Task: structure prediction
Amino acid sequence: MYSSVPPPTHSNNCKSDNPSVEEVTNRTDRDLLKNVPERIQLKFAQLQQRRKDWKNDKGDQRRTDKLKKKITRDVVNQLQNNDVDVNTLKDVGVTIPAAICNRNKKTVQSNESHQPIKNDAIKWQQIKERLKAENPYIEENVDRQYKAKTKIETDIDEAIEAGDYDRAENLSSQISNLQFATEITNAIRRLKYETSLQNIPTEKKRKRRNLYWTFESKQRWETKGNM
Result:
């Protein structure tokens, strides 16, 4: 009636028959590395570390390139669409994409052929006079305490310690380009702020008190509903 072998008893201490995924992967890794020489394992670890370092450097370089492209695009859009302004930036050392240069040439040709030059266009001479000027309305809330070094500055220090002066020079030129671009944007903001201050009294003179001699349709409806 009953078999001679008793049924198995499952206790909490015994392991389950189905191992977890982590145990299987660890077991397979150990089995794979068991017959691999230590020299190949060391070489593989070095290549893996080199790939991680390359990814980190590539990400930092990509971020700096995006920042440079954004700043140069904003600066060129703020400046007058003129070849002289673009050439001035090139002489200073700011790298401008070819698409923006071609777009500026097309806009200049179209403006010369169809539209007159706008009177309110920002001139380079006015921006040049305000490059080193302070902007109290912009920098009033800026914290002037000591700030930590940026990633580019730490890279420059590491390159100098390692003796890689070419890389340090390239990074320093990037910092100078960014600083020059920020100076140009601040000068443009200062010029716009000064022009807005000059236009305030004229705008006040233009505004006249609107006297309601008769009720508008909406006002008549509102007054009728409030009765």
In short: Confidence is low (pLDDT under 50) at residues 113-120. Residues 165-206 form the longest helix (42 residues).
